[in-house]
């Protein structure tokens, strides 16, 4: 008797997750194409091929959907597990993984277009700008802050102010190439150029925050 509930529940869950993903993908596309104000939940439902009721069953309102879309985009390149400190993994490797993911994220076409959208609508809708900042940049900063705090506690680096160090890390990674890309006066770095930039930033960051105890024998 216990087999029936298991059999009926298992095919239902993938279907729900598939609908959620379809809603998120449709929302990301519509927000970029039409802007936040001109994107309705009805339009998202139509594009996703689901009912409006289904959209609301996953996301209570448009703000919640926008937040989820931004978070989903960030996690494509920077999964939550990137901000963990696995036992035995060198700190430099952990930082390189985050740096590569962040660099891919901020230079992706979707991310560039979304940042341009936020720059044009920010003054008109401060609340929307705050939602975007909290769901994207602030969320990553807080994840990095927690990670750097653990690294400091472990003694690999000396980081008294992890949040400020996280700001330094991500701002260094953005670099002038990302600004040129956002302004439309520059193109994507080649794979080799991007890797060299990431490597340089991580090395610079580790030198800046190296524990003085590590250099005591020098």
Automatic annotation (TrEMBL):
One Pfam short name: TetR_N
Keyword field: DNA-binding, Transcription, Transcription regulation
PROSITE patterns to which the protein is assigned, alphabetical: HTH_TETR_2
HTH tetR-type domain mapped to chain residues: 17-77
UniProt DNA-binding residue ranges: 40-59
InterPro entries hit by this protein: Homeodomain-like_sf, HTH-type_TetR-like_transc_reg, HTH_TetR, TetR_C_Proteobacteria
Gene3D superfamilies for the chain: Homeodomain-like, Tetracycline Repressor, domain 2
GO molecular function, one term: transcription cis-regulatory region binding
UniProt keyword Nucleotidyltransferase present: no
Name by which UniProt lists this protein: TetR/AcrR family transcriptional regulator
Organism of provenance: Pseudomonas cedrina
